[in-house]
Amino acid sequence: MSGKESVDNQYIGSCDDKTLDVVNPYSHAVVGGTASATSADCLTAIDAAHAAFKTWEHSLLQQREDVLVKAAGILSLNSMKEETATPIDRSFSQSFIGDSSKLGDLLGDEKTASDRVPGVEVVIQRRAMGVMQVVFVFLFGIALWNASIVLILRAIAVPILCENTVVLKSSELSPQSQFIVAELLQEAGLPAGFLNLISISREDSPTLSAEIIAHPSVRRINFTGSDRVGRIIASEAAKYLKPCVFELGGTAPAIVNSAAKGIVSGALLYPGQVCMSSSQVLVQQGVSDNLICELCKSLKAGDPYTDPTATLSTLFSQSSAENILGIFHEAIGEGAKVLIGDITRDGSVIQPHVFTDEREAFGPELSITAVDTIDEAVELANMSDYTLTSSLWTSDLGSAEKLVPRIRAGKSNAILYLDVS
């Protein structure tokens, strides 16, 4: 819904009619827009969420489950349509079409939480784990651009199931895909005011986000993004002793003691613009990195809709590409060695790069660090302030069972390969 925001199940413009442009990452043409919320618009969204809470405060769990289940069905059906599965404001490759068919399952899985143990008690159990501790009136959520549909579903499904209303600040870079979620929830029967979607310009975001956090009706904050912004949000919330749910940083070290082809996919999927990309690879001495380099050479970045030979999509914007090249140059100045790549870009397109001993850049790059022992690899993997996920690539089940518990990460995966040739 170009130039609009979704508040109280109505599509409205901003008070001053200001809009934000949405730019296609391939052609760099303006392809749409969204309303740029003002302070008054934010207050309208908060008031709608507060009023909506009273209307469904004592609703039955089954009613809320039914909305999620119906929305999951609608999303799964629509994911078969390319125009829905691949919004023009997202810079993901064609492979996301297949992944989007699973999004309905993600939404429906939140409903199944109440099926695993009969009765409402299971919902209370989920709250005790920190997702929702009590019914809060409503939550302020902040969505990102890189996996916009997934992140908005994850941010709102459990709060809605637990009887909360939500004001969601969508990414100004990918509002169209997030409006899809608002529309399907409305179609599924979500009452007016339960989800209120606004977009805020980058210039206004610090001030208006602080105003929303300070509002007495806002009881909890949910944010996925960088630790830098997370610290700012946490500082604002701490002024009012408001709890936050954060997923910060994005380090995802991969320990390899047997070369595995999947490591390239784990690092360069959506070309590295995912917080769980395995861009830091810790490899034992004696395990050749030639396989990883050869696999990266076979990949090509470009517009998958106009270039059928492109296996990776472009970056989200030209500014993203400029920032990543800056990180590359800085790493080289600090001693990193370039194994693959020419440190150039074509607009928002950067071809895959492989470095030695380089930090994550949130782009199409792999950093390979050689270690003498697995113990050294575990030590390096645990040196990050925020390790979101980790993976161990091995053909030895015994090693996996011993090593995975030693890695301090939000989630650790063991990928077993019996034949790594």
TrEMBL record:
Domain of life the protein comes from: Eukaryota
Keywords of this entry: Membrane, Oxidoreductase, Transmembrane, Transmembrane helix
Keyword check for Transmembrane: yes
Matches recorded under Pfam families: Aldedh
Gene Ontology annotations of biological process type: gamma-aminobutyric acid catabolic process
UniProt-listed InterPro entries: Ald_DH/histidinol_DH, Ald_DH_C, Ald_DH_N, Aldehyde_DH_dom, Aldehyde_DH_Superfamily
Domain Aldehyde dehydrogenase, chain residue ranges per copy: 16-411
MF GO annotations: succinate-semialdehyde dehydrogenase (NAD+) activity
Keyword Membrane applies: yes
Listed transmembrane segments: 134-157
Protein name: Aldehyde/histidinol dehydrogenase
Annotated organism of origin: Armillaria tabescens
